[in-house]
């Protein structure tokens, strides 16, 4: 799989892809969407020779450009939702932690089956760390998956929970903000044209009034928004999200929304020029990331407050022109809950842990490999096990951290295993897309969204 040198890489392109004057021409499209792309992507991720991995990433981006797959901001669609021109569906934002190429391909197949253009690939700041997927790596995998499955059109890649660490912020605010800005810059350079700022971790409920509780949140969110606007590629208005309630904490209210938005817009206006603000707002309505594992490893039922979600979405649109509210931590909800999101006009819903669970728990997943990962976690993450916690609870909470150390082992699982898991996930994505009513949104998306036109550089 690994190319030994640039010459071998170049030879593999023969009769399929031509390179002339720094531009790529696809001469055999069907062949491009097969084993060649798979090999280029493997080398883009795993080849230790940076010249080879860099060339492979550039080739994937340029092939994608030629075949009509381009990173885009969903801002145009969300503005239309805020104006009331578009409604009736909730956009799924899907976090992919491991077996990433296969999972992303399953998403794209389900999207094509439903004529769905309204779906987002995303990765959170914390996930970048424990899955070992940099923004550049994650973006190239998502782009390759879209090409591999014959998708054409705007592709939405999002930085999820680009989050301020409250403890680190208290110790050294400048250092934590600088770290966030560095991540934002890295993500935008990789093609992340959708970024969710999460400074809700800095909300201080001990303060006497709502404005003071939210002050650090809206001030830093405005500062980071202004920073993002400085880095935007030509012709791109990045879709920025804000957050008013940390997931797993106190449920959000309409008053929280108004205090945050008024303070945020006033602070943003003070940056000296007319800057576009956020396009959506994340709220807390009763969920917890990953769900709450019970001692036997099953997940506790969640009572999600759809009434609050609907009220905040409505106020966000009518008073501030936002697309609406965003629901986090939803992938472990029962199947009969998902139709409620479009009914309450929720703008976006974030889905992650459920797909991780399906991967690990699939009957096709090799039992010996799964146990090897679990034993590794029992040793390496032992300090994370809480008093009274069962082994099942511990493994459920920590197995997300198995994707990074075993990344290449996941990638090189037998094709039959990957095919079966991919098909299982595709069925789930197909179900969710139908419940979220995003079928037949492709033409709507392409009407309101214009992808970046700049040709990828080396």
Explained architecture:
The protein is α/β, with parallel strands linked by helices and 458 residues long. The chain has two domains: 6-66, no CATH class; 70-358 and 418-448, TIM Barrel (Alpha-Beta Barrel), CATH 3.20.20. The protein contains 19 helices and eleven strands. The chain has helices at 6-12, 29-46, 50-66, 75-82, 100-113, 125-131, 135-148, 166-171, 173-190, 210-231, 254-269, 306-320, 340-343, 353-361, 367-380, 391-398, 407-411, 415-435, 442-448; strands spanning 17-20, 23-26, 69-72, 91-95, 120-124, 153-163, 194-198, 239-243, 280-283, 325-327, 348-351. The strands form two sheets. The chain has an eight-stranded parallel β-barrel, surrounded by seven helices. Strands 1-2 form a two-stranded antiparallel ribbon. Helix 11 (254-269) links the parallel strand 8 and strand 9 (280-283). Helix 7 runs parallel beside helix 9. The longest helix is centred in the middle third of the chain and has 22 residues, at 210-231. It is globular. The relative contact order is 0.14. The model has no long low-confidence stretch (mean pLDDT 93).
């Amino acid at each position: 799989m690994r190319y030994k040198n640039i010459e071998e890489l170049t030879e593999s392109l023969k009769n399929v892809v031509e390179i002339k004057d720094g531009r790529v021409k696809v001469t055999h499209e069907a062949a491009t969407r097969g084993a060649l792309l798979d090999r280029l992507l493997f080398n883009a991720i795993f080849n230790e020779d940076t010249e080879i991995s860099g060339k492979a990433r550039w080739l994937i981006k340029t092939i994608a450009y030629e075949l009509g797959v381009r990173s885009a901001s969903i801002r145009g669609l969300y503005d239309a939702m805020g104006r009331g021109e578009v409604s009736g569906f909730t956009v799924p934002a899907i976090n992919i932690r491991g077996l990433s190429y296969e999972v992303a391909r399953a998403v794209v197949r389900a999207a094509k089956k439903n004529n769905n253009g309204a779906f987002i690939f995303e990765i959170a700041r914390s996930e970048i760390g424990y899955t070992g997927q940099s923004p550049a790596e994650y973006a190239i995998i998502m782009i390759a998956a879209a090409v591999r499955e014959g998708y054409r059109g705007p592709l939405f890649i999002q930085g999820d929970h680009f989050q301020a660490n409250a403890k680190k912020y208290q110790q050294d605010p400048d250092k934590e903000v600088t770290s966030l800005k560095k991540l934002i810059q890295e993500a935008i350079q990789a093609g992340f044209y959708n970024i969710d700022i999460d400074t809700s971790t800095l909300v201080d409920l001990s303060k006497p009034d709502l404005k003071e509780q939210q002050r650090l949140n809206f001030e830093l969110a405005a500062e980071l928004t202004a920073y993002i606007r400085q880095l935007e590629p030509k012709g791109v208005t990045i879709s920025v999200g804000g957050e008013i309630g940390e997931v797993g904490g106190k449920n959000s209210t309409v008053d929280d929304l108004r205090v945050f938005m008024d303070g945020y817009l006033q602070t943003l206006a003070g940056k000296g020029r007319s800057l576009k603000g956020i396009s959506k707002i994340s709220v807390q309505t009763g969920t917890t990331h990953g769900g709450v594992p019970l001692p036997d490893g099953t997940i506790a039922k969640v009572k999600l407050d759809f009434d609050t979600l609907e009220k905040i979405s409505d106020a966000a649109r009518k008073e501030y022109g936002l697309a609406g509210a965003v629901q986090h931590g939803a992938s472990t909800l029962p199947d009969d809950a998902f139709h409620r999101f479009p009914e309450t006009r929720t703008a976006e819903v974030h889905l992650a842990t459920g797909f991780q669970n399906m991967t690990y728990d699939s009957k096709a997943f090799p039992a010996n490999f799964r146990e090897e990962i679990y034993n590794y976690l029992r040793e390496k993450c032992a300090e994370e096990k809480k008093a009274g916690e069962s082994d099942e609870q511990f493994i459920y909470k920590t197995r997300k951290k198995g994707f990074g150390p075993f990344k290449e082992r996941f990638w090189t699982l037998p094709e039959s295993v990957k095919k079966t898991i991919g098909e299982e996930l595709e069925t789930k994505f197909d179900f969710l897309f139908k419940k979220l009513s995003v079928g037949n949104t492709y033409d709507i998306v392409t009407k309101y969204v214009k992808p970046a036109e700049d040709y990828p550089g080396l």
